[in-house]
Amino acid sequence: MHQPDRPAAGRPSLRRRFALAAAACAAVLAAAVAVPLVHASAATAGFVSRCGIHFCLGGHPYYFAGANVYDTFTYGGSYGDTETQWMDKTRIDNHMAELAADGVTVLRTWMFDHETWHGFEPSKGVYSEQQFAEFDYILYSAAQHNIRVIPVFENYWEAYGGIDTRLSWEGLGTGQANRWRFFNQAACPGCFTQYQHYVSYALNRTNHYTGVKYKDDPTVFAWELMNEPRYEGQGAAESVNGTTLRKWVDTMGAYIKGIDSNHMVDAGLEGHGTRYGFGGDEGNPFVAIQQSPYIDFTSAHPYPNEGWANLTLAQTVTLVDAWLADSHDVVGKPFFLGEFNTQGVDRSTWWSSIYGDLQSRDADGSAFWWYPDAQAGGDNYSVKKGAPELSVFRAHSAFMAAKSGGNPPVSGSPSASRSVSSSPSRSASASAPASPSRSSSPSAAGGCRVGYALNDWGGGFTATVTVTNPGPAPITGWTLKWTFAGNQAIGNAWNATVTQSGQAVTAAAMAYNSTIPAGGNAQFGFQGTYSGANAVPAQFTLDGVACART
Fold first, then answer.
1. Which residues in 267-352 belong to E strands, given as ranges?
2. What is the DSSP letter of 227?
3. Which of 360, 488, 518, 511 is nearest to 435 (CA)?
4. How confident is the model at residue 461 (pLDDT cuts 50, 70, 90)?
5. Angle between helices 189-203 and 162-169 (to 10 degrees)
6. Residue ranges of the alpha helices (H) in 332-446?
């Protein structure tokens, strides 16, 4: 019962190649009506929140101009030492600087990959500490450049594995004809469990550059459930009403909100539908899905110049205005043009109309597709530094910032005030650096406390160790030791040089965290494997002094 203009072939094929097709919106405007801002009573300081049909930050309206860079997580070799080979910090920093210079204030980017190369979860339930460490740095660098981030948890399409991989892990068929099963709990209960475990791991993760959990970091603008979910091909009623997808969105939105009360959540919809004359009915209706009480704002991804869409500029303006009206007046939430761009037309002209319409109709935010850096490849939708249309974007960004009273800093986030030492943290297999100077007597004589936070998925685990100095004097050049009770084997570590001999483990400070000030702490972590039991070590000693447990 789908309409013939549905992108059954054209769009997925583009996604296979580029992780996401992009497109554009346009707009010359009609008359705009200003809508009063309704302030949220429970907004958390430092976090962008929803205030009625708009965003707000610190009690003031917040509007933004953003961009998509889906592949930031791939910067680096995906091999070797985490800090110097797996990730390319210089490239990440340089790209963030480019984005900021051109006025990008919100970055939408992928936080998923099931492949071996830069995989966050390369096999079921096994999370790559090295890859998440790279995302730690992405968040850190974004905050340093006053950019907020929308991480996307998963992909409907096959790029970087997507839900096809999760279906295969449950022994189910893959491809677009089978993807509906992912959203149907009766058809794939394991898919629900997999997704929730991944989300929980990410939200509860502590960024090892900032010491802040992802769920507590104002650098994150919002969490996106999935890139372009659909419950497609399961009958006319589902296609139009989206009942099953709505249930999935409610379930996962509630799950995230149960862990993280700080951040907004969006569904990641394309906005297709016969009522809009754009695409077909695909089990993901714009209004019904995004009316979920767990979704904070709507999204849409227009592609006016694709062959299956073939919209004129005027038609694109009408399309965007229809979404915006439904978002503000029917759904009652802010509107985010989550992807857009044009091809085969004068981009600056189209962008001028797009942004002019968004501004005049009081739209809340947008993110063009896409802004690769100089080292990345390109396609018909690439917009690289120096492109003429970026002058249009910069003017739009300045307009949106002015409506927000300026570009508020990513405040309240330790990532915005800390610096990362040029000294790389090493993996457990790396040779130990020169030992920092040590005091001649036990430096922890004033006492110590150790916290050991375990994230265990059965057979594998990560541990975050926090060493606290409760004494009146700093601890300098510390070494922490413990003994595992089982057969735990450490694979790699960060923020300490960790060595293991049998069950005995030694963690030595790096040069940049070798001093723990009075009342302060140092934190490091590691990834390991085991069989049987994985008990928390019973005793820790710091420079020969037994530590209390926290």
1. 298-300, 335-337
2. B
3. 511
4. confident
5. 120
6. 347-360, 389-403
What's the pTM value of the predicted model, to 2 decimals?
0.71
- Taking residue 374's Cβ as centre, other Cβ atoms within 10 Å add up to 11
Which residues is 497 bridged to in the sheet?
Answer: 508
Is 60 exceeded by the pLDDT of residue 422?
Answer: no
Task: Examine the pLDDT at 167 and tell me if it is beyond 70.
Answer: yes
CB 8 within 8 A of CB 215: no
Q: How many residues does the chain have?
A: 550
Alpha-carbon gap, residue 278 to 6, rounded angstroms: 8
Distance from C-alpha of 61 to C-alpha of 135, rounded to nearest angstrom: 29
Average pLDDT over residues 469-494: 90
Alpha carbon 224 to its chain's center:
8
The radius of gyration computed from the CA coordinates of the chain, to the nearest angstrom, equals: 24
Nearest to 24 by CA among 388, 358, 398, 402: 358
Both tokens of residue 113? Answer: 């990959």
What is the CB neighbour count within 10 angstroms for residue 288? 16
| CA–CA distance, 99 with 500 (Å, rounded to integer) | 42
- What does DSSP assign to residue 44? P
CA-to-CA distance for 527 and 352, rounded, in angstroms?
49
What confidence category does residue 213 fall into, taking pLDDT thresholds of 50, 70 and 90? very high
| Euclidean distance between CA atoms 149 and 393, whole angstroms | 18
Strands 460-468 and 521-529, bridge-based pairing: antiparallel
Beta carbons of 366 and 358 less than 8 angstroms apart = yes
Cα–Cα dist 521/537, whole Å? 19
pLDDT tens, position by position, 119-135: 999 999 999 999 999 99
CA distance 152 to 109: 6
User: Tokens 């057969």 — which residue?
Assistant: 487
Question: Hey, which residues does 49 pair with through a beta bridge?
Answer: 56
Q: What is the DSSP string of 79-134?
A: SS-IIIIIS-HHHHHHHHHHHHHTT--EEEEE----SSTT-SSSBTTB--HHHHHH
Q: Please, which residues have CB within 8 angstroms of residue 327's CB and are 6 or more apart in sequence?
A: 53, 290, 297, 298, 333, 334, 335
Residue 258 neighbours by CB under 8 Å, 6+ apart: none
Assigned token pair, 516 = 């723990």
Report the amino acid identity of residue 168: S
Q: Which of 305-309, 385-389, 455-459, 463-467 has the lowest mean pLDDT?
A: 455-459
pLDDT exceeds 80 at position 11: no
pLDDT for residue 443? 52
191 class by beta-carbon count within 10 Å (0-12 exposed, 13-18 middle, 19+ buried): buried
Cis before 370? omega within 30: yes
Q: Please check the confidence at residue 287 and state whether its pLDDT lies above 50.
A: yes
Q: Considering only residues 412 and 305, tell me which one the structure prediction assigns the higher pLDDT.
A: 305
Q: Are 259 and 220 spatial neighbours (Cβ–Cβ below 8 Å)?
A: no
369 bridge partner residues: 68
- The answer to whether the Cα torsion of 403, 405, 406, 410 is positive or negative is negative
- Per-residue pLDDT band for 444 (boundaries 50, 70, 90) equals low
Q: How far is CA 242 from CA 7, 184, 264, 284, 292, in A?
A: 18, 12, 22, 5, 12
